[in-house]
Amino acid sequence: MPERLSAFLQCMAAMRRIDGSVSTARAVEWVYSIQARFIRPTQNRDEILELLGILEPLRPRTILEIGTASGGTLFLLSRVAAPDAVLVSIDLPGGEFGGGYGRWRTPLYRSFARGDQRLFLIRADSHHVKTLQRLQTVISHGELDFLFIDGDHTYEGVRHDFEMYGRLVRAGGWIGFHDILPDPSDTMNEVHRFWRRIKDVHPHREIIGNRSGKYGIGLIRA
Predict the structure, then answer these.
(1) What is the pLDDT of residues 40-97, one digit of tens each?
(2) What does the H/E/C string look like for 96-144?
(3) φ, ψ at 116 (rounded to 5°)
């Protein structure tokens, strides 16, 4: 059996054994386990755990993720969202920053929804107005509780996602940026430049597990 197919089947089987009673900490532990390697997030474990700790008491009802990648972050967001939440993940097929999952992954990602949650996968360019319009058709009241920007990591790409979708975040909601630390090994990553520009003009906080490393999550309050 090809290794990828084996990992996929193991992940699907393991997910069936995880119910809503599993704590957020245990869910994070699981998503970094060998069983979940198929959806393991490209995140610092301590950083994503702290982010989830901020979101969980809020029980967000509308979440938008830009940049699906392996799907692990989307899985964890579903664990802290409200039981009737709407979760949307936008991903560019063939994207340069880890995007472009095959359609055969879709059933796995959709299975992340639990209870009365609804999960929508939009395979399109987040910078296109038509993508915004598609998003608005599935967000009934037109506002987001949490926006997580982790797609195009160029300066202009991050700026565009922030300006297009940040205005949908309700007052008091959160906007998150992944990869706010500079990474010398990745010259295409310019998120840190945009973060430095905006963080001091908004109420903000930084989640940084290792300042000498990479990743980092920045949050601003809408």
Answers:
(1) 999 999 999 999 999 999 999 999 999 999 999 999 999 999 999 999 999 998 766 5
(2) CCCCCCCHHHHHHHHCCCCCCCEEEEEECCCCCHHHHHHHHHHCCCCCE
(3) -95, 15
Handedness of CA 208, 178, 40, 97 (dihedral sign): negative
- Residue 138 structure tokens: 């599935």
Q: Describe the strand order of the beta sheet including 86-91 as a list of residue ranges.
A: 118-123, 86-91, 62-66, 144-149, 169-178, 217-221, 204-207
**Which stretches in the chain have pLDDT values below 70?**
1-3, 5, 16, 19-20, 95-100
pTM: predicted TM-score of the whole model, two decimal places: 0.92
Domain 41-221: which topology? Rossmann fold (3.40.50)
Measured between its terminal Cα atoms, the distance across the chain in Å is: 48
Residue closest to 191 by CA, chosen among 182, 199, 200: 182
Look at residue 171 and give its three-state secondary structure.
strand
What distance in Å separates the CA atoms of residue 196 and residue 172, rounded to the nearest whole number?
Answer: 21
